[in-house]
Design goal:
- 53% of the residues lie in helices and 3% in strands.
- Strands 1-2 form a two-stranded parallel sheet.
- The chain has five helices and two strands, in the order H-H-H-E-E-H-H.
- The longest helix is centred in the first third of the chain and has 20 residues.
- The radius of gyration is 16 Å and the shape is globular.
- Helix 1 crosses helix 2 and helix 3 packs across helix 4.
- By secondary structure, the protein is an all-alpha fold.
- The chain has one domain.
Length: 137
């Protein structure tokens, strides 16, 4: 892991995998290290956006962006997830998702925020380029 964005991406991706596993989701993605390069590149772009000023707090908006990215990588809707056939059951409009899938998207938004706030380069923190302390009450 060399760049800040890569560290944030791996954190978000693997934490989302664990959340899906814990929730008993029907689709558990493979580990980050096993993902294809095209997926990792697009995911790094999502994390870069989510860590910047153009970030979205809308699970629905992020789901739409995810669908566009997957369609762009040649994926299509299928009742069952298949990496080989590039089919995914969540490639439907947000309104058609079940509660578990909507919750997964909401968790993703929160994981991105955690990564943005708490995974940073120490030099930036020491130089005062990060915001002040965060208070949880």
């Amino acid at each position: 892991m060399s760049t800040l964005t890569e560290r944030q991406a791996i954190f978000v991706y693997e934490a989302a995998r664990l959340a899906a596993l814990a929730a008993g989701a029907p689709v558990i993605p493979p580990p980050w290290a096993e993902r294809e390069d095209s997926f990792r590149r697009q995911f790094l772009g999502v994390i870069e956006r989510q860590a910047g000023p153009q970030r979205s707090e809308s699970p629905e908006e992020l789901h739409g962006s995810w669908m566009n990215a997957y369609h762009g990588m040649g994926w299509k809707y299928g009742e069952k997830y298949s990496l080989a056939e590039r089919t995914h059951p969540d490639l439907v409009p947000y309104a058609q998702l079940g509660q578990l899938e909507r919750d997964k998207d909401a968790v993703f938004v929160r994981l991105c925020e955690i990564a943005r706030l708490f995974i940073y380069d120490l030099a930036d923190q020491q130089a005062g380029r990060l915001g002040g302390p965060i208070s949880f009450r």
